[in-house]
Design a protein that fits this description.
Elements (H helix, E strand, L loop, with lengths): L9 H13 L3 H13 L6 H13 L3 H13 L6 H13 L3 H13 L6 H13 L3 H13 L6 H13 L3 H10 L9 H5 L3 H4 L3 H7 L2 H6 L6 H13 L3 H4 L1
Helix pairs in contact: 1-2, 1-3, 2-3, 3-4, 3-5, 5-6, 5-7, 6-7, 7-8, 7-9, 8-9, 9-10
Amino acid sequence: MEEKGCKPDTVTDNTIIDCLCKCRLVDQALGLFLQMSKKGIMPDVITCNSLIQGLCDFNRWQDVNQLISEMAIRSISPDVHTFSILVDAYGKEGMIKDAEDVIESMIQRGHYPNVVTYNSLMDGYCLEGEVDEALSVLETMKRRGAVPDICTYNILINGYCKKLRVDRAVDLFQQLPREGLSPTIYTYTILQGYFLTGRHVEARNFFDEKMMLNKGLKIDMVTCNTMLDGLFKNRWMDEAM
């Protein structure tokens, strides 16, 4: 580019840094980040978000904290996406208190969590088996004006199924039309909780192909595998075949 008289700018370096992080070459991305200022190219919040995501993927929390401090020094303000990355990363690592602290911090800074932020926190609670806490997050997000989406309910339905609280999962499933939401193929697949509790007749009825097709859903490989696994484990060999 430089040989052709085209000087790289922030967008150029952001593109490369994002690509390096997605290719798990985070140290090279950090190296380019440090070179930007020397070249007179100023990093922005998009630069930092890519790096934070890359560092979180490797659980490099000390480097994450250092980068956030560097953002403050450079007067780069984190945005909702920055906070959502952190909430998601902390939640997946079972660091729920840290995730909650991030949300409180973003509210104090005048940034309000969106549905992605709340979904990440709910997913973290469900991964820890604290599904009722995740449900309370749903109520909180509604009070604060964030509108839940189908991913929100998929997270909760999946969480309750894993806790073998299938009836609660079905209640949430039946709540979808009232929320103006339509189930996805994933919503049906995660209701394998019926099989986990030995209720294979109800499971078979729920996974009715015609019903799903009527709702515009196409059964995929994961759905079929879930059905086969459940039928075989419950010794419904002919039905499985």
